[in-house]
């Protein structure tokens, strides 16, 4: 049994992705502070709500509560884990050391997933803790690869990874929102603008993933000399969009580091 503690946005993305990948809903249990939320997910996905103490029966316990809620959950779990249980924390900015100190001897793995797991296109970074066996790391890798792709990395790189793939979907949705608004300003209906922008994201992502060409070359392919794209990119440069993205990635990484100290 996989128990997901904290069935919010990311918890549900993983659950839905796992079920779509073929994992039986009966194999998944959820714990959440909100009874209506548990009922909603039971109805939508066919998973079952359990109490935190029932996670003692789970082989894999995924901690998906907000980072500041992690200490309380760890305190409740301490001393109640099954032999061989694996604890997977997806909380941003909660170091392995804090997790391992609260669960002495337990196998712990830190993971940074992202919400596209919901549609089987997730990206995740995996950091094995000291007591995690090779089989347990493979189990986690299998669970993340079932909903997209993953890499095993060092904890030192996890905040940077969070700044790209963990939080990254939000930057792209932000750009999509702004482009849709731009289309509406030009007189397109919101539905037309949304369809145009959505398919442009899908096509561009597929080219980036499948063409073998760099983002730079793909951008140059669109940019005809003295043409429309060059004018648009000039406006982005004038507004400092590249610098803003560099700063956004840095601020995200820095916030992850700060959270580790809170
Ligand atoms: N959202 C994302 O894209 C990503 C999130 N993460 C990480 O995932 C974690 C969850 O984030 P997110 O899904 O956005 O947050 P949410 O607030 O959507 O989900 C957290 C859920 O946990 C519930 N909860 C709170 N306390 C407890 C408890 N003691 N026991 C069980 N459930 C509890 C919350 O209920 P209530 O709201 O009532 O408090 C809520 O439903 C965070 O640690 C975040 O860093 C990692 C990668 C990506
Ligand atoms: O915003 C957050 O803190 C979480 C972690 C990565 C994405 N969402």
UniProtKB/TrEMBL annotation:
Pathway: Amino-acid biosynthesis; L-proline biosynthesis; L-proline from L-glutamate 5-semialdehyde: step 1/1. It catalyses: L-proline + NADP(+) = (S)-1-pyrroline-5-carboxylate + NADPH + 2 H(+); L-proline + NAD(+) = (S)-1-pyrroline-5-carboxylate + NADH + 2 H(+). GO terms for biological process: L-proline biosynthetic process. GO terms for cellular component: cytoplasm. Keywords: Amino-acid biosynthesis, Cytoplasm, NADP, Oxidoreductase, Proline biosynthesis. Residues 2-93 form the Pyrroline-5-carboxylate reductase catalytic N-terminal domain. It is an enzyme of class 1 (oxidoreductase). Its EC number is 1.5.1.2. The keyword Cytoplasm applies. GO terms for molecular function: pyrroline-5-carboxylate reductase activity. Pfam families: F420_oxidored, P5CR_dimer. Catalyzes the reduction of 1-pyrroline-5-carboxylate (PCA) to L-proline. Belongs to the pyrroline-5-carboxylate reductase family. This is Pyrroline-5-carboxylate reductase. The gene is proC.
